[in-house]
Structures are given as structure tokens and as C-alpha cells.
């Protein structure tokens, strides 16, 4: 029987992740892993679950997936603990970002566990919000997660390791001379690494052809997702996530190229007559509809894509945009705070 990809990975494939998670869980400490979508959440989950079972760290392992379960995490956990037993149980909660009222939910999960604290331990997998806003992933009256582990973009050495493991598993023949370019284009983002490697072998698309690379569905999907993240968070948070270097430059050459040419299909269709920069700025606004966008936010986005615009130039551009888009959108200036885009009342 063929092995799944995650079964072929050594325990140190993700550095000290497995050792660190095991050390905390086996001491009865709850753990939260924070992973940006597309950074290998599925592989990490399968890798950990597979090795937990192989190493027999717990008598029983349960998986709660809010996308699949009909009952709440509270009801699900109560059922697990309804029968008193000396067996050790691990409950893995996937896509924790989808759980509503997180702090209240964690408070209740902690109360359930208190009845038999040595019996039940929690491992949650969440998106980047757990790392950027850790207080939102703790209970109301206690520190629920003793360990919060953020999964950063890969460095070059780990990118090289991933390319070689993929090539070995799938039978892709990749020249080592391509590794550095794969890293420079991907910025260490696992999903982009995987599909650059795949297409390089199967389609022979030159890595220098960024136009074609961005059209690969899986890569395009991840680039759009990453662009929304860049638009949503401020510069400090983007740097904390490891997406930009100390000079605030994007690590992913492909993401930088995509951001520079970013256009919302809706905006392009509504306003084909707008200039490239106007279309891009309005596209940024549309991604944060009804939310405040500051001039600094826009300036940072322009800088990350190597567009040289002053705050004054952006301010004047927005002033012109207000008039051009007023039939569909209202761009309101909130003095001292920024701008907010909303649909026009007469739309």
C-alpha cells in the first residue's frame, strides 16, 4: 500500500515542531498552532496526527472539524467526557478560526476539562489571527493555550528540503539549480513552492515567466489570498508574519509581481476607463469595503509592489476617484483616521 505524503516526512521535517508540540501535550498543556491558509495546514494536521498515533502518545485521539460536524464543539466535548475513564484523550480542533465566540467557548472547554484535567488535552489549529491577536484565542478567565506556535514561511534551507521531498515522492525531476529561484518566487510559502515545483517538471514553464506562473490556478488562488492578507493587516503585522524583510520588501517575488498588477475583476469591469493606479487603489478599497483604509496602508501596499507614490500623490488620486466612482461607490474621508468605501445609496 502506498504511503501518503505526510507519512514519508521525518519527525524533524518541520524543525522542532513535533518535539515542541509533544512536549507540551504530554504534560497536559493545551497547544494552538497558527497557520496562514496555504502554509500547509492539512499536511501539518495529518503529519502530527499520524505521528501521535505511531508513538502512542494518547490512548484515544478525536478530531473536531467545524466544517463537518453538526454539533457544537461544546456538545461534542461533553460527550467525550460523559464516561469517566483513566484513558488519556487528545482532542484536535481543526479550523479553530471558524468557531464563534472563541473566548466564551474556550472558557467552557476549560470547565469541562477541569473535572478530569489529566484525561483530556486540546490541540487547536487556527489561522494567522491566533498569532496576531493571541488574546482572542484565550479563555475569559484563564490562559487556555500554554503554547501558541506560529508557522512561519520557510527559509531557503527548508524550501530546498520541501522541493526534494516533493520530487522524491511524486517522481518529479528538478534541477538543484532551480531551488534558489523557487525560493525567491515563493518567498517560502508552501503552496506556491509545491505548484512551482510541479509545473516546472510537468509543464516546463520557465520560472522567469511570471505571467504564466500567476495563471496556474493553485498559485493564483494563493496569491489572491495573500493579497487580501496584505490589504487587511498593517505593516507591522505583515512583518511579524514573516512576509516582508527588514526593509519592508516582500519576500515572494511572485506575490510582489501579482500585487503590482493587482486588479479587482469587479472594478475593472465597472470602470474600464480608469488608469492602472486608479484601478489598483480602488481595488484595494473594494477588498476592505466598509472598513477603514489609511493613507499609510495604501502607501505601504504601493511600496511593497515597488510603486513610488508619496502620501500626497495618493491623497490627490483618491480625491479624483471620489468623483469618478460616485454613481456606484462613496469614498468617505474620516478625518485623522483614513477612508472608508461603501456602496452608493442610489446604486
From TrEMBL:
GO terms for molecular function: DNA binding. One of its GO terms (biological process) is regulation of DNA-templated transcription. This is OmpR/PhoB-type domain-containing protein.
Amino acid at each position: 500500500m502506498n504511503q501518503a505524503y505526510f507519512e514519508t516526512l521525518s519527525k524533524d521535517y518541520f524543525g522542532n515542531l513535533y518535539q515542541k508540540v509533544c512536549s507540551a501535550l504530554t504534560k497536559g498543556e493545551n497547544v494552538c498552532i497558527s497557520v496562514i491558509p496555504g502554509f500547509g495546514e492539512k499536511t501539518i494536521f495529518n503529519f502530527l496526527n499520524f505521528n501521535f498515533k505511531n508513538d502512542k502518545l494518547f490512548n484515544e485521539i478525536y478530531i473536531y472539524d467545524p466544517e463537518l460536524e453538526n454539533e457544537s464543539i461544546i456538545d461534542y466535548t461533553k460527550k467525550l467526557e460523559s464516561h469517566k475513564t483513566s484513558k488519556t484523550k487528545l482532542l484536535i480542533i481543526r479550523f479553530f478560526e471558524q468557531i464563534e465566540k472563541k473566548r466564551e467557548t474556550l472558557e467552557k472547554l476549560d470547565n469541562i476539562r477541569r473535572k478530569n484535567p489529566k484525561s483530556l488535552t486540546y490541540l487547536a489549529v487556527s489561522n494567522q489571527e491566533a498569532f496576531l491577536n493571541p488574546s482572542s484565542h484565550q479563555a475569559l478567565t484563564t490562559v487556555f493555550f500554554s503554547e501558541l506556535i506560529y508557522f512561519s514561511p520557510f527559509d531557503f534551507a527548508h524550501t530546498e528540503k520541501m522541493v526534494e521531498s516533493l520530487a522524491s515522492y511524486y517522481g518529479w525531476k528538478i534541477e538543484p539549480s532551480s531551488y534558489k529561484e523557487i525560493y525567491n518566487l515563493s518567498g517560502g510559502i508552501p503552496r506556491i513552492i509545491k505548484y512551482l515545483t510541479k509545473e516546472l517538471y510537468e509543464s516546463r514553464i520557465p520560472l522567469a515567466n511570471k505571467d504564466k506562473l500567476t495563471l496556474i490556478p493553485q498559485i493564483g488562488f494563493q496569491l489572491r489570498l495573500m493579497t487580501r492578507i496584505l490589504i487587511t493587516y498593517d505593516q507591522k503585522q505583515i512583518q511579524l508574519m514573516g512576509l516582508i524583510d527588514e526593509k519592508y520588501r516582500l519576500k515572494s517575488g511572485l506575490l510582489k509581481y501579482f500585487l503590482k498588477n493587482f486588479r479587482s475583476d469587479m472594478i475593472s469591469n465597472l470602470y474600464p476607463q480608469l488608469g492602472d493606479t486608479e484601478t489598483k487603489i480602488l481595488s484595494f478599497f473594494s477588498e476592505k469595503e466598509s472598513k477603514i483604509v489609511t493613507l499609510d496602508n495604501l502607501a505601504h501596499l504601493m511600496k511593497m509592489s515597488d510603486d513610488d507614490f508619496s502620501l500626497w500623490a495618493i491623497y490627490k488620486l483618491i480625491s479624483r476617484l471620489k468623483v469618478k466612482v460616485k454613481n456606484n461607490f462613496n469614498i468617505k474621508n474620516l478625518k485623522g483616521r483614513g477612508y472608508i468605501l461603501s456602496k452608493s445609496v442610489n446604486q
